[in-house]
């Protein structure tokens, strides 16, 4: 594609890459999970036509899994009426109709989810069915301790931020305190990206304290191997000080559940601290990479908050199987969640938090194509003070999922979104793939030498687990 990087891309044929493992081990499991979910849903309907249609989607999913596991060619996508199908199919042709185990990782993984989506979109009864919804909800349920602690913390913070008491501190002291708080909120948001690996879903009271300024949170800072939080704070603070009237921050979302929860926590904090005057959230249009946010996940989150008692106190399927009764919410916990709901629904009703889906996010290419192929979206993002990209896939797309030397500056690896682009980009990413840029000389080697880091196998294993993170800023307005 004309807009893409010329640096070689990660391929599913590369034995040392996470791409190789994803294609052979992870994708068949994901497809099996989708088949199981749909199978159960079919069992719950009495509508014969819906059952028949559901069964035919199940067999299409099984066919897709067979093709994948037998290294067949990727076949052209069926036209489900959306404009992106043509470009997917054109790209397939340009790639020479590749096979599953020898294809650029990024494109083939996007193709996988896009193809799954066509099966539902072309149906009558399952058009809006999300095969990943149950998984997303149950992961969210299991992060209950963290959600409760954060709700409480957020409400306390809101009270402080809205009480507008004059502070006895000097301006410098105040700014330093604000910076600490900003960093803390961003770190919570950053580590929330580890949730799809279940790293942060079962937080205990002590665990959550780790994220809230205690010594242990400081310790986790060591795992942020490139860290531009300070520069980001200074940028937002300067805009606030300059009295710029409209100061929008955008968040290109990643996962639903706990990660979306912490994203909205960050959004609410930025608004109440007056570091932004509006926050635009960008979800996906279709179920994507299992846990990514679709608009319904946002409304589901608000529904959970408003019906917190019934959500948390009625046993899940899993609880029922184990004969477990969930603990009741305390008065304090219930009231924290309902206060949080009030606060967020007010911000939403006032138009300060906005949801703005766009088909571009589920296309098969990288964000190097943004200026060239999605001009209106690019213009919109340029009018934002800061665009935050959450998570691993967004990072892969920003950097083209290419095999850069890890010391390549982030500003260079994002190509057309780099300096002079007019757009400010901040990546908040826990590393779960091969690509990484912007590291100090020798850092990749140091991490490879650590236990499980990959050693001299040629694989960058340390970057697959979500244990390490990068926070990288590019001020494209300069
Ligand atoms: O780890 C495999 C994978 O599917 C990657 O392809 C993708 O980048 C990541 O998981 C999803 O992570 P995230 O939700 O942080 O984008
Ligand atoms: Mg994701």
Q: What descriptors fit this protein?
A:
Rossmann fold; 8% strand; 7 strands; seven-stranded mixed sheet; binds 6-O-phosphono-beta-D-fructofuranose; 478 residues
Task: Provide a descriptive summary of the structure in words.
The protein is of the alpha/beta class. It folds into two domains: 18-131, Transcription Elongation Factor S-II, Chain A (Up-down Bundle), CATH 1.20.930; 134-475, Uncharacterised protein PF01937, DUF89, domain 3 (Rossmann fold), CATH 3.40.50. Helices cover 50% and strands 8% of the residues. The protein contains 20 helices and seven strands. It has helices spanning 18-43, 48-69, 84-94, 105-121, 133-142, 144-162, 171-191, 205-210, 215-221, 229-241, 258-272, 295-306, 308-313, 317-322, 331-349, 370-373, 375-382, 391-398, 410-413, 443-449, and strands at 224-227, 248-252, 278-282, 353-355, 386-390, 424-430, 469-475. The protein has a seven-stranded mixed sheet. Helix 6 (144-162) runs parallel beside helix 11, helix 6 packs across helix 15 (331-349) and helix 7 packs antiparallel against helix 11. The protein is globular, with a radius of gyration of 22 Å. 44% of the residues are buried. Its EC number is 3.1.3.-. Keywords: Hydrolase, Manganese, Metal-binding. Belongs to the damage-control phosphatase family. Sugar phosphate phosphatase III subfamily.
